[in-house]
Amino acid sequence: MGLGRRLYRGEIDVDFVGKWRLWYSLSAFLLIVSIAGLLINGLNLGVEFKGGSVFSFPAKTAAVEDVRATFKDAGVHQVIAQTAGERWRVTTEALPENTLNTVQSAVAKEFSVPVNQINVQLIGPSWGGEVSTKAWIGLGVFMLAIILYLSMAFEPKMALAAIVALIHDLVITAGVYAWSGFEVTPATLLGFLTILGYSLYDAVVVFDMIKEVTAKLGTTSKQTYSMAANNALNHTLIRSLNTSLVAILPVAAILFIGTTLLGAGTLKDLSLALFVGMIVGTYSSLCVATPLLVTLKEREPKYQAIARRLAATGGSGKGGPKGPKSAAVAKG
């Protein structure tokens, strides 16, 4: 409790910028694992993207094992069964007409369901291709708009740091889907788009404070850019943590309680993307975007001059923990 009160009052300074090697190493590890998962396992694309058959029928007392076994016995190889209330939604690979009839008869017999209450929907892969294309176009337009906005509202280097953090978040979230085998559906795409907005919001809050603090740096400043940025980061720390916690709690409830106890299987595709993305987004805004921004800014002559002067006079600055010295200072 003492730590929590000190954190809330801003009495704790965390050297985020000074530990950039740790953050970069951790991010590199997560990215390598995520990319490996995408290359080895790939994404488990839903029927909306690769085509297939979707069966919907009422079976109040059925268990998921019974539903899967019924479809397997009828000659289906890929079975994804989800329940929503008293109805089942079962996704399979594309099936020929005779197999469709066999499955309908097996379901009707096993669960005492009239054949006319078993709805069958056939989805072709061309629709999924159109959705994927539009999603990539939307992502590209979003990225371009963000670069333009941040470049005008802040500066190009902040825009670059924010975009790198966004890509970092998307790759790691996609890696979690690859390793977990969760199905990627249109709801998952909505989750990914939400991640982009959330991660960007957190980065903008941090960058706005950094812009305000570093605007006061001059030739006689007692802080390097890294010190001032780290100080600004600590001032927004409790706000970032509070925002993340409030957002993550209901998403966690949907993911862990809704999908396990209530059987809300259709929500897990969306909730997993949000849950992972929010955690990674908070981490990246604090530990990836800001250290990367500092790395870029400390190469500017103005801030190199401040760092050299403080190094020569032995000054460490006030208002925050020491950040990493610029490359010029390290060499000289």
- Given the structure, what is the number of helices? 13
Main pleated-sheet profile: 4 strands, antiparallel
Query: Which CATH class of the largest domain?
Result: Mainly Alpha
Widest β-sheet, arrangement of strands: 3-4-2-5
- Spatial gap, N to C terminus: 44 Å
Strand proportion: 5-15%
What does this protein structure show overall?
This protein folds into 2 domains: 12-44 and 127-331, Multidrug efflux transporter AcrB transmembrane fold (Up-down Bundle), CATH 1.20.1640; 52-123, Alpha-Beta Plaits (2-Layer Sandwich). By secondary structure, it is an alpha+beta fold. 67% of the residues lie in helices and 8% in strands. α6 (125-153) packs antiparallel against α7 (156-180) and α7 (156-180) runs antiparallel to α8.
Give a summary of the structure in a few sentences:
With 332 residues, the protein is an alpha+beta fold.
List strands and helices in order, with pairings:
Elements: H1 2-8, H2 20-40, E1 44-45, H3 47-50, E2 52-58, H4 64-73, E3 79-84, E4 87-92, H5 97-111, E5 119-123, H6 125-153, H7 156-180, E6 183-184, H8 186-214, H9 225-235, H10 237-258, H11 265-297, H12 301-313, H13 327-331
Parallel strand pairs: 1-6
Antiparallel strand pairs: 2-4, 2-5, 3-4
Helix pairs in contact: 2-7, 2-11, 6-7, 6-8, 7-8, 7-11, 8-9, 8-11, 9-11, 10-11
